[in-house]
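hey so u asked for the seq, here:
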Amino acid sequence: MSKPVVFISYSHKDEIEKEQLIRHLDVLKLQIETWSDDNIHGGGKWREEISRAIEKADIAVLLISANFLTSDFILEQEIPQILKRQDNGELIVFPIVARECAWQNVEWLVNFNVRPKNGTPVWRDEGKYVDKDLTNITKEIAVLLENKQKSTWPTFQNRKGELDELLNNLTNFGGERFFLLLSGPQMGKTWLLDELSSKLEDKSNAWKILRMDLRGQTIDLCSDGLKLLSAYFGLKPAAEEDSITQIARKIVRSKRPWLLLLDSAEFLHRDAAAELRRNLSGISKLIHTAGNTAARLAFVAASRSELKSWNSILPKPRFNEINLTYFNKEVIIEALGEMTKIDNHNKLKRKLNIAEALNNATEGLPALLMKYMQWIRDEAYLMGVEDICSQERFIELAIPYIKHELLSADILLPFSTKLEPVNDRLKVLQKILLKLSAYRWLSESHLGMLLETENNLDELLKKSKWDVRDLWNALSHSYLIRPSRTIWHRMSPAVRRLLFRYQYPEPEQQRMAHEKASQFLGEWWQEISGTDRSLYLIESLWHFVESKRLSEEEVGQKDILDYTRVMFSEALEPNHNTIGDLATYITARLNDDEELQYSLNNIHPELFEQILKIIEDIDTAQEEKS
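ran it, structure tokens below
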């Protein structure tokens, strides 16, 4: 396991003070790694090295002085990155007042708990207290890092399989070299790139690793694959053939493996993605032709959406997709096991119950799960398991995550510009997604129905300067929706269930939402033909089952079976001799529908099989008629 990193942010005019601080921190050199720009080797890209060091740091020590607070580079480059990681809970910021200055008048700094206490400068009274203050600071940093390591739940623990797959391929001479990490927002892609980089550096110093994040990059760079590739290697864009040759020559002459990491690849324009792949292929061929087995090129990109030009077999080498999944109960149990050792059967049973409750409360979403884990550790491990799934806890932990993360402009309007009415568009998308969270599959018909029945949406739509088609396209391009080539789009199931609980907190509200959805789909299926009709039928059945399950009245199997019999009998009437195919398709979809099966099983364990038997009997009867 790598040591925690302490990043030192300072002005070069305070070099002497920085050296004294590092000398004291070196007392902890067996426990920590101290990083300052002294670590940058000659010829290194110092801006990129500093940015990479901030990304890897556990603590950022700020050596505050007038020199520090007037440094353009520190204030424009280092501080925004440091504060962003601190806001995300990834970094501890530790400001030290080095010399007397008006730090209390600096907006971003004034709320920090600076050291020494009360903001007394370390270098005061001709250095009389320097050793005493720096000794206390060193001890405090040691305690902070120890507590951070104890309290930090193993982030994205179920990414071990994906990390091992990447490492085994990249370090094996015959392994794959090109990968695309795919998942929705906040599923651990960036963390996985960090870990991959760190593990490769730990394994061998041979790797040359270059990294780029397209978030915040210029449109020019995101729309030009050759320019993007040249930027990795610090080259000025030239003719394609010349650039490819230059890069290949540089890699071959280095006699070492190179890894290019690309985060936020969803911002790459389609043509640029195709161009980038073509150029990577050309470079790989030239390296292979050179015959130097020590030199090779690998590329790992992380994206929230598919890049279609990377799906095809050619040009080689082919991209291997790794889809990051939600957490499951096994991963949660493992994490709980690290919080406290299991030493008897009762504790094991309790952990299993807690893991199941956490899985239900968070839907397996990593970022939300971490919030619940932190709550359990800090405040409530001895409280009842039922409290984990309580509405009180949902309001405290889940709703802020939903409002500020899942429904943020970053996720719902990833490609918006400053010229657009972002706030108004964000409001209408938030409203629409919350209202549509009752539905597992979405089409423009759903959107039209909602606009007809919800009066206040018209005004929101006008303010957004969108028409209905624009709104549908915006929904399709948000990171919460999975677009398809059919008329149907799908919201991430875990996210949909969270939004549904937020929009409809009471069981009766949930029941009414399902009842309304069942009625809407029951009216529409007759206008749909083919396999699309089967989806309407199944969704209508699911909503009907859910409305009955959530009812305070005793649920009767007969109601559900009668509903199935009437609806499917009418829907499976002979239609151009496709009745058997449609029935088979419906049965296959039902067998894959775990959510519907779970709902039916909660009512009666044999109900699902009885429904399959009804469809089989209807199919047989219709065949006999025809």
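Residues 168 and 175 are 7 Å apart (CA to CA). The radius of gyration is 29 Å.
lmk if thats what u needed
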